[in-house]
UniProtKB/TrEMBL annotation:
Domain CzcB-like barrel-sandwich hybrid span(s) in chain numbering: 78-199
Protein name: RND transporter
Taxonomic superkingdom: Bacteria
Alphabetical list of Pfam families matching this protein: Beta-barrel_RND_2, BSH_CzcB, YknX_C
Organism of origin: Flavihumibacter solisilvae
GO cellular component: efflux pump complex
Keyword Transport in annotation: no
InterPro entries: Beta-barrel_RND_2, BSH_CzcB-like, RND_pump_MFP, YknX-like_C
Every CusB-like beta-barrel domain range: 208-276
Amino acid sequence: MKKVITIGITIAVIIVSLGAIAKVLSNNKKKSEEKTKIVAQSNAAVAVRVTAATWEVPSLDVISNGTFTPAQELSLASEKSGRIVQVLVDEGSYVQKGQTVATIRVDQLSVDMRNAEANFQTAQADLQRYENAFKTGGVTQQQLDQARLGLENTKAKLDQARINLGDASIRATISGVVNKRHIEPGTVVSPGTALFDIVNVSSLKLMVMVNEAQVANLQTSQQVKVKASVFPDKLFNGKISFIAPKADAALNFPVEIIITNNAGNQLRAGMYGTAVFDFPNQAATTMIPRTAFVGSVNSRQVFVPENGVARLKSVIPGRVIGDKVEVLEGISKGTPVITSGQINLVDGSKVNIIQ
C-alpha cells in the first residue's frame, strides 16, 4: 500500500514539474514574439549607403607584370656524325651569326671531296673529247648526251662533298651569348646532338595580360614603358609586337612587348618586368561603384532611393574599370545609387540612408 502511495506522489510531482516548465516556455515565447514585433517595427526601414553617379574621365592607365624572355634563343645541334676535334667558344662567349664554334673530324670528308673533284675534272675532259669527236662524226649524239649527263652527276657529287666538308665546321646561326656548352673535344656526335644553347638578349620579350577594357585601347607597334624589378629607377622602351585575338579562360588577353636592351645588356631573361600602359585622351562618362549592382554587373540592375523607398532601375553597363563601372544608359550624373544593403531590398522597400 505504501509503495502505491509513493508511486502516486512521484507521478504527481512529475506532472506538476512538466506544467511549470510548459508555463515558463510559454511565457518566454510571448516575450520573444513581443521583442520581435518591436525590432520589426524599428527596422521597417532598411539601412543603406548611397553614392552619387559621377561624370569623369575613366583612368585606364594600368600596369601589368610578366617575366622577360629572350627575343631569340637557339639550341644549336649537330647536322653530321663524327668526333668533335675543336671547341672554339665557351659559356659566356659572345658569338656572331656564321661564326665557327666547333669542328668535326674532317679526314674522311676531305678524301671524299678530293675524289669528287677528280671525278669532275675527268668528266669535264671526257665531255671536251666527245664534243670534238662529234664534230667529225666520231661519236653519236647519244654518246655526247651521256657525257654531258655524266658531267652533271659528278658536279652534283662535288657540291655535296663540299657541303659535307663545310658542315664539319659548325657555325652559329644566330648572334648571342653561349648560355650552355654541351660538348668537349673528343665528344662523338650524331645528327640532332645538342652542342650549344645560344641566347640573344640584345632585345627581350615581355608577355603580359590585359583585360577587355584595356585591350580595346592597344594596337601593335604602340610604344610602352617597361620597368624591371631589379632596376626600379630605370625605364626601358618597349613596343607591342603581338595582341592575342582571343582571350584566355579568365577573359584576359596576352600582349607581347619587345624591349630593346641597354648598352650593357643589363636586362636578362628570367627577370621580373612590369609594363606601364598609358591611355590618354579618354572621354568623360557616367561612372558608378561596382558594388551598386544587384548581385553582379551582369544583372544590369541597381537600386535608387526615391522619397524614402528603393526603386529598382535597369541600366546598360559599359566598361568595368577597377572598382567602377561605366553606365551607358539608365542613370545620369548625380543620380544616387545604393551601394550596400541591397540584399535586404525589393522594389519599394523603405530605406534609411546612413553615412
